[in-house]
Request: fold
Amino acid sequence: MVTLGIESSCDDCAAAIVQEGKHILSHVIHSQFDTHHPYGGVVPELASRNHLEKIIPVIEKAMNDARLGWNDLEGIAVTYGPGLIGSLLVGLSAAKALSFSLDIPFCGINHLEGHLLAIQLENPTLAFPFIGLIVSGGHTSLYQVEGFGNYRLLGQTRDDAAGEAFDKVAKLLHLGYPGGITVDRLAKEGDPQFFDFPRAMTTSTSLDFSFSGLKTAVRYFVERKGEAFSKAHLSDLLASFQEAVVDCLLIKLSQAAEMTKIKTIVICGGVAANKRLRLRTAEMVKEKGLEIHFPSPYLCTDNAAMIASVGYHYLRQGRSSPLTLNAEANLIL
Ligand code: KG4
Ligand code: ZN
Reply:
């Protein structure tokens, strides 16, 4: 089955063609970085307008790159939540229009399910169950993944997402938006033990996270020591902040593995591209006899291939969505 995936939940307009749920024939992403960068964050109204301009060219490029004609498509998978409502509606409307005009089924996909199962594209034989950690700009959620459509939420952030903390700290230090990748790069040269930032929730048995106190602690540090000092020790400051985030994530992953007795861990979402997180996780799993899988960085951040892949599994079972399906900003998994 040849599936077209469409993803427009936030600030990336993406389309991909995936065969049999695992062979990526093409994948196209139009980033709205230039649109939102001057504002230091995503402006929802600008995001939906930009999606409206780009959605057709992005889908056409995915079709051309895969060297396919419209009649080669057998199904469509589209993100219908969670995300920005105006952005979601653009992708969903495009999917419905194509589904209706080509007379092929479409399936609405939960964006979080796409992230959790993105690993299947590169590792289709990975066995269930596994512990899946989604760490992105909007979510920090820990799931027990038993199979397609079978997820148990083990814990989630009570305030900011990990990626949001990266972005807010980067903004505070005038490093641009989104800041995760810049923090990752600059922290490489720094000393993670330079300052001992708080690790919230780590002594609790709950598998929830909290990152807003950490972000505030960085702000207080900068206010107390002054901008000049913080700039002079930028790499050390960022490395110490990053180390606190990584510690929080690893402590909960380790607790989850102990509680569930599941030995396989998958980390996905934009923050999964973080180099320090990858290194420290590799050390942790070695020490504890666990197994870790990270999707490639381009499959960690928002993309349409992960949506097409999940959609394939549902469409193959005959599970499609009605044309009345609506976008849901706060869809949960
Ligand atoms: O999954 P994603 O592309 O979009 C959401 O669904 O949120 O994740 C974007 C988030 C942003 O907060 C970004 O700063 C963060 O992922 N991010 C990183 C890195 N690359 C992206 N955070 C830390 N280190 C990175 N290398
Ligand atoms: Zn995402």
User: Anything to note?
Assistant: The chain has a mean pLDDT of 96. Residues 111, 115, 136, 269, 302 surround zinc ion (ligand 2) (CB under 6 Å). The CA atoms of residues 194 and 236 lie 6 Å apart. The longest strand covers residues 23-31.
